[in-house]
Amino acid sequence: MTVDAAGADRLEHRILKRFHKALAAYSLIEDGDRVLVGLSGGKDSLCLLELLARRMRVSRPAFSVDAMHIRMDNIRYETDTAYLQDFCDALGVRLHVATTGFDTRRDSKKPVCFLCSWYRRKLLFNAAQELGCNKIALGHHKDDIVQTAMMNLFSQGHFATMPAKLTMRKMPLAIIRPLCMEDEADIEAFAAMRGYEKQLKSCPYERASSRDDVRRMLAEAERINPDVRHSIFNALLAEGKLVE
């Protein structure tokens, strides 16, 4: 995807405006924060890290940013660590790379995708505390939040989603989602404009999921109402579902 200079300026302005609006609306960043970004290497986490690193250069609020890239020793998912290191170096951010894994035979009662996510998240929480970070930033955007709300509504019978900020009860950490107001299409265009390198996905367990089903359903609903995603997001805002 290519955009002209004027289009690039409009895109960047739109992304930065929503990013700063989210930071202010949900008090995501405060003086003295140490933020650990979960860096998968995908477009969302790369965009998140770049935006936070750029914001970090502003005098107030004064905060620091580190990045954590997690590998699974029993799940083949190739990433270019050298590229991620260069990306972080250019932003003035320290990159930490760690490996974890699990025994599918011992944990056979739970889906592999759930286990992979759970062990990654566990390592991220532990690393944040070891590094002295008080916040973990994740790259979920508006589309993720809307899709999660619909999945919860259909399968759990309640209207809820991932909040923009979640303070953990059992550890001194908060999870923040600074991209919560960003459209995935804008992030994808921004990633192309900035030349982000795509990581190779080759997970043997990757398959169609309920999230894919909801994504297709929303695309179909947009034929009836092009603003359906924004309507759902606004309903979440009205119900206070992005605050917890």
Tell me about this structure.
The chain is an alpha/beta fold. The chain is built from eight helices and six strands, in the order H-E-H-E-H-E-H-E-H-E-E-H-H-H. It has helices at 5-25, 43-56, 81-91, 112-130, 142-155, 184-194, 210-224, 228-238, and strands at residues 34-38, 64-72, 94-100, 135-137, 165-167, 174-176. The protein has a six-stranded mixed β-sheet with strand order 3-2-1-4-6-5, with helices on both faces. Helix 2 (43-56) links the parallel strand 1 (34-38) and strand 2 (64-72). Helix 5 (142-155) packs across helix 8. The longest helix has 21 residues, at 5-25. It is globular and about 45 Å long. The mean pLDDT is 91.
Mean pLDDT: 91
What's the arrangement of strands in the largest beta sheet? 3-2-1-4-6-5
**What is the global morphology?**
globular
Q: Strand portion, in percent?
A: 5-15%
Count of extended strands = 6
| Main pleated-sheet profile | 6 strands, mixed
- Give the H and E element order: HEHEHEHEHEEHHH
Radius of gyration: 18 Å
Q: Which spans of ≥5 residues are poorly predicted at pLDDT below 50?
A: none
State the helix count. 8
| Backbone structural class | alpha/beta
Q: Please report the distance between the alpha carbons of the first and last residues.
A: 37 Å
User: Helical content, roughly?
Assistant: 40-55%
